[in-house]
Design a protein that fits this description.
Layout: E1 5-9, H1 13-29, E2 33-38, H2 43-51, E3 55-58, H3 69-85, E4 90-94, H4 96-109, E5 113-118, H5 135-152, E6 157-160, H6 163-171, E7 180-182, E8 204-208, H7 217-228, E9 235-239, H8 251-259, E10 264-267, H9 272-277, E11 281-284, H10 294-302, E12 306-309, E13 324-327, H11 332-344, H12 347-363, H13 366-376, H14 394-400
Parallel strand pairs: 1-2, 1-4, 2-3, 4-5, 5-6, 6-7, 8-9, 8-11, 9-10, 11-12, 12-13
Length: 405
Amino acid sequence: MNHKKIALIGNAAETLIRFRLDLIRDMVQQGHQVYAFSPSYTDQQYDVVQKAGAVPVAYSKIDRSGLNPLREAGVIFSLKRLFQQHEISLVLSYFVKPSIYGSIAAKLAGVKYSYSMIAGLGYSFTREPGKSIDIKRSALRSLLSVMFRAAFRHNQKVFFQNPDDLDMFVGRNLLTKEKAFRVYGSGVHLDRFEFSNPIAEPVTFITTGRLIKEKGFIEFVEAASLIKKKYSNCRFILLGGTDDNPHSIDHSTVSEWVNEGIIEWPGKVNNVGEWLCNSSVFVLASYYREGTPRSALEAMAIGRPIITTDHPGCRETVVEGENGFLIPVQDSNALATAMERFINDPSLILKYGQKSRQMAEDLYDVRKVNRFMMDEMGLLKVEGCKLLVVPTTRDHAKERGWFRR
């Protein structure tokens, strides 16, 4: 195996560190030189990436929700120039726009190997149930689809974090089936997120994420309000900070929920694992177009039952009636009913939590996920040693028992 100069392209240093630091370390351990591309770095983020063995590289800032042609072209040519400057031989891009721009820039720079990971489709592909998609989002989705099709022609393989996204891309002819591979999210570090016995009294429900409407926080608060009318001693914790997304929930709204005594809101925290350890049940009422939500994987690893929506990405984290419950999107009554099942039968909390941990060990171990991806990209010293048999379609997954609903 020849050692490669790898460009790992993300949309922010924060997400690169949270979701890809283990992958960086694994690539470096295999003898590769990794260049970690982000639009910007703080001094602290720069140091974290350097200590992981990678070279931090800043490139032109991406507009997350717009498509200004001149600005977007500037990002592509910024990447092309940097690929050539660092003599990059392999590109791995993740998230929507970096996958498009990284793939096109790799082609223009003459990079031989190019790969992408679709870690959810985000704002542009999220449709609020019962409502038609707005004109801006519809136009953005159509344009992104054209760009995906053009960009992925230059990819050897594209990794998907859930079968719904994979099926959609193949079904719409955005790429060929032969290039599409499923991975089990970004994986979770099982040693960092160790199993802990859940809090049994008071029953404590926790949810985490960026404070945007599509993440289901409004439904979480509505369900909490319904539960508190019957069970006043239950706790409801919301972790997360405000966001610049067009559908962000503002600070005053969350403060009002706190002042009414419905939820506790520590804000954005750096010790999510500790908060999860001091909880009973993890809730993610999202209808955002997730990949496989890392927040749920961390909760599973720690051994928490999951209540989440029957929605792409989210549904992959629950085997109904074994480690949690699936609910319809935007249904606070159904969420409250699922919560009440754990309140009325607390024995389910530990039982379902143990199943969550087992699923994390079987499917979502970051070492297995990273090893599979590196093997598929030819980055392992000993190739052909796949630790995961990863189905590429939903039917294939059902046949092998990897995907159950």
